[in-house]
Amino acid sequence: MSEPSLARQTGAALIRLFYTELGADLSDIQRDYIIRTGAYMLLVTLIGAAAAIGVGFLATQIGARTARTMRRDLFSKVESFSLEEFDRYSTASLITRTTNDVTQIQMMIIMGLRMMSRAPIMGFGGIVMALKHSISLSWIIALAVIILIGVISVIFAVAVPKFKLVQELTDKLNLVSRESLTGMMVIRAFSNQKHEEKRFEEAARELKNTNRFVSRVMHSLWPSMALIMNLSSLVIIWAGAHEIQRSAMQVGDMIAFIQYAMHIIMSFMMIAFMFIMLPRAMVSATRVEEVLKVVPSVRDKEHPAKLPDKIRGEVVYKNVSFRYTNAESDAVHNISFTARPGETTAIIGSTGSGKTTLVNLLLRFYDATEGEITIDGIPIKDISQKQLRDNIGYVPQKSTLFTGDIASNIRYGKEDASDEEVENAAEIAQADEFISAMEEGFKSPVAQGGANVSGGQKQRLSIARALVKKAPIYIFDDSFSALDFKTDAALRRALQESVKDSTIIIIAQRISTIMNADQIIVMDEGRAVGIGKHKDLLKTCREYREIAESQLSMEELA
Amino acid sequence: MTKENRRYDRPRGMGRGRGPAAMMPGMKAKDFKGSIKKLIAHLSPFKYKILIVMILAALSSVFSILGPRILAQATNEIFTGIMNMVAGSTVGINFTRVGQILLLLLGLYLISSLFTYMQGFIMTGISTQVSYNLQNSIAQKINRLPLKYFDTVTHGDVLSRITNDVDTLTNTLNQSITQIITSVTIMAGVLIMMLSISWSMTLVALGILPMTIILVLFTVRKSQKYFRAQQEYLGHLNGHIEEMYGGHVVIKAFNREDLATQKFEEYNEELYNSGWKSQFISGLMMPMMHFVSNFGYVIICILGAFLTTRGRMTVGGIQAFIQYVRQFTQPVTQIANITNVLQQTAAAAERVFEFLEEEEEKPEEPKVTISNEKLPIEGNVEFSHVHFGYDPDKIIIKDFSAVIKKGQKIALVGPTGAGKTTIVKLLMRFYDVNDGAILIDGHDIRDFSRDDLRSLMGMVLQDTWLYNDTIMENIRYGRLDATDEEVIAAAKAAQADHFIRALPDSYHMVINEEASNVSQGQKQLLTIARAILSDPKILILDEATSSVDTRTEILIQRAMDNLMKGRTSFVIAHRLSTIRNADLILCLDNGDIVEQGTHEELLKLNGFYSKLYYSQFDRASV
Q1: What's the rounded Cα separation, in Å, for the pair B70 and B473?
Q2: Among residues A140, A293, A381, B348, which one has the fewest Cβ atoms lying within 10 Å of its Cβ?
Q3: Helix or strand or coil: residue A302?
Q4: A221-245 and B47-86 are packed helices; what angle lies between their axes, rounded to 10 degrees?
């Protein structure tokens, strides 16, 4: 088998001599051959570049499109969630899933398509070509690949667990800095600056040391890769030289073999990296899938009952109980009462007594686990969520505003409200004064989440938003807490006028806010411990009296 | 104090990976030179180490340049050997010679890899140390800045300097120093090598260079535009998602899911468009560079082949030259990128140094010291013609005077945002009065050191601050050298002992990061315990409003009464009982003290206070 190779090489040398003897223009023949081969190489390069660009185009398209669809599905899924699901996943986690996790998957798809479409072909092609040039040297490539994978595995096995630690330590450093910012007054008040600095220093030092370790481990990656590649080419030359000596190989073959060997090693390197990246994307994918699989617990009936256009708004709770998933006891237990149009029903009780849960059931943020709530005799579970909520003006405990301006936030309650209606609602909510004090009045911009308006202003705007709806049923969930006594009183007086025909349910902490209500429900640990008027409850209900005593003086109680 | 901006921990979008730095949207520094100079000054303690890194980088690149050249000798040796054999000689390949060359190369490669690793090792040491130093400087700086500074700067901003900016800084630092040196050495070395092989082929290779640079700059610029757009749309989308998820209850209650989704679709579409473009264009770089370098490769092969046929070049020479050409394009690309990296570094450095150079609190020159009771303080407080405004042009407290005797109780009342905490902040010297003076036992508070002054006072704010440590440590915060027994005694006086003992791990329970594993009322009790432990002469209290349940409220009231006994106290009052018992009531409106006096006096005035007071009894209930 060694003979033909030597013969070819000998032949080439002899033919050259022969041509020279003949006086043929040897360089002409050679030039033609070289140029032809060169043109061929260029063509291949061009096609290669075009193909790579095509891969890039398709990969980015596929990645971005998948991400777009995934984000859309996630968002509309989350929009369909009831509060039950929100409790389960927490807002922050849902945000991360819709943004970061999807981005993570997108990057993985793009990179994966690019690399995975290249690496195996490159590797396979490299192997085929290399074997064509020499089979006897292929053990070198195999050995190099094995060592390479071994080295990568060891480096990552050491570094990856520390990556997580770095993240944790960064979070810790963030936490400590955040604490010293939010607690600035307290820290200075107690002159504990040195203590804080020490705490920070400890966190920073730990982060520094871990970071240093990880970074040093990772720094060994490239030099060892380079070393493996360089050494394998040395071994190929040494072994190749012997092959050539035995006339089993030509010099050109050996050079080509080195090139192919590099390709093969590179492709295995890519594949190894992919397998390291993959688990991260897998985690993201699982987190996304988890959300997409959720079936919201509050759902409309297939053929929901229709409410008449104009309803009276009588709300009846009949033995209503509610228990959070996996909770040991009811959050709200066996509550019955009737809230009538034109009357005010107040709910009072300590934190955690179930007041908000009680009204959340009426809004169908949760569905009652037992018993039934009806509006004008129709069970709310039979009504579509949309129609039900169209009939309720709701002011939440946390007054959330949205990006836009003042008017757009009030109009959120009623899309087609006229300017007059908007202004009127603002006036009742005692918001007109501060709105007109703003430079652009109703057109004043509102930042994300209403960050640029004060707590009291936010509350009044969120009341105006509900009022503009002119709903037959109103729910005020502790909606006056951020207002001072003066504004609180003025607002209540104005409200009395404007919503006098509606059913009003109001949750409050201040007794003065609710002492004139038509009925007061006193909640304690999920049970209604008293229902009645202020005067009666003072006599009959111990919990009510306790609350009253803590807020009012004896003469006021009398 | 509640101005906390939580935006910094919003999930970060793309662009934080350690990928090609040049592809990140460029932030530009206002003063590039100045920032870089300051950065260099910060690096000067490490100058010898950096010098070593430079030498190592230069050496390892020289080795990697020499590699192909020496390899070529081996190839040539083999080629000569085989040609000899063809010519009929029996000598063949000189394996001793080939072996020698290969052994030399082996050593070279080993040393080169080792040097590369050592560079990384040393630079990592430097960069982590620099980031640690900077972070500590920032943290200490926070404590020296006047509170006023934080009126205009959000917490998120400061936090992002501590983590993101320092991170960027050290990352790019870590890479760019070695990169600059390596790139320059390789470029120069490769050029020399190429010239030594063949000047005509070198000319061709250099001809490709401008093409490469233009391509790189073009792609970088183009893709940066889209990256910036992508970053912006990602911000929009994230903001929208955050807002919509945060306001989920309202959206549901008002049936506006459609509106939310519709807007989402818009942002999503925008993000998709800019997203795939930025990815695609930045991905173009590789194939284009590949093409250009392959193009050069082909031309060089053709030229090399000609030269070889004419006997003006060896086979090993071509092989080496081709390898050099391949090595040549990489540093060119890197240097093209490096300006971008430097811009980013400068921008990050600027933000860090800007913060470190902010004006600090006035240095103190205490005229009186109260350490160790040398100067007994009783707690008489006098406000004498105090003028103050957060903005000196907008004075909100005009000529306020009041004399408060030790042990008296002062109630601060007024609508939200009236400036009740301003008085507190002046007293604690978080801000200094513009005119007039505040005196304690006749001494101007500016004559005390801040630490001394604050040691006289205890503060319980409604906005309770606890940190991520055990309950024991959180109470001990009032006096760091207090024993466990003292802490427990303080907790008992604050009516907190009972609930603490009911908690898992009781005093050793760790307050979690959001401080959400104790209730609002319990937090209040803990801060009262903390104030009791510090045993102040003067107390500042913010009464609880609505967020606490009734039973805890009674406990808090009792604890506060315990605390106030025998101390001068300033109470931000929400409760009628407190107001009526106060020795002095200060009525504030719009930051102005509109009325002062006792309850009876003020009622007689029939002015602001009486209106405020009677509005509470307005029976107009909904």
Answers
A1: 67
A2: A293
A3: coil
A4: 10
Q: Is B139 on the interface with A (CB under 8 A)?
A: yes
User: To the nearest whole angstrom, how far is the Cα of B138 from the nearest Cα of chain A?
Assistant: 10
Please state the domain extents for chain B: 32-197
Q: Which CATH class is domain B32-197?
A: mainly alpha
In this complex, the residue of B83, B247, B480 whose CB is nearest that of residue A400 is B247
Q: Which of A96, A251, A353 sits opposite B79 (nearest CB)?
A: A251
Closest residue in chain A to residue B77, using alpha carbons only: A241
Look up residue A283 and give its two tokens.
Answer: 């985690």
User: Residues B338-392: pLDDT tens digits?
Assistant: 777 777 788 888 888 888 888 887 777 777 776 655 567 778 888 888 888 877 7
**How many C-beta atoms lie closer than 10 Å to residue B214's C-beta?**
12
CA distance B97 to chain A (A): 11
- Rounded to whole angstroms, how far apart are CA atoms B556 and B546? 13
Q: Would you call A186 and B477 a contact, using CB atoms and an 8 Å cutoff?
A: yes
Lowest average pLDDT, out of A24-33, A319-328, B12-21, B183-192, goes to B12-21
Q: Residue length, chain A?
A: 558
Closest CA to A402 of A477, A453, A478, A456: A453
Q: What is the pLDDT of residues B437-448, one digit of tens each?
A: 888 888 888 888
Beta bridge mates, A473: A392, A503
Taking a C-beta distance cutoff of 8 angstroms, is the pair A424, A465 a contact?
Answer: no
**Chain B residues 36-95 with CB within 8 Å of chain A:** 64, 67, 71, 74-75, 78-79, 81-83, 85-87, 92-93, 95
Give B268-318 pLDDT, tens digit per residue: 999 898 888 888 887 787 777 778 777 777 777 778 777 777 777 777 777
Of B276, B279, B266, B258, which Cα lies nearest the Cα of B239? B266
B478: nearest CB among A30, A190, A224: A190
The CB-side HSE value for B93 (13 A sphere, CA atoms) comes to 25
Domains of chain A, CATH where assigned: 10-122+274-297 (1.20.1560.10), 398-470 (3.40.50.300)
Confidence of residue B622 (pLDDT cuts 50, 70, 90): very low
Q: Which of B252, B307, B462, B477 is the best substitution to test chain A (most A C-beta atoms within 10 A)?
A: B252
* B-chain residue closest to A502, CA distance: B622
As a whole number, mean pLDDT of residues A511-529 equals: 86
Judge whether B572 and B427 are in contact, CB under 8 Å.
no
Q: Which residues pair with A96 in a beta bridge?
A: none
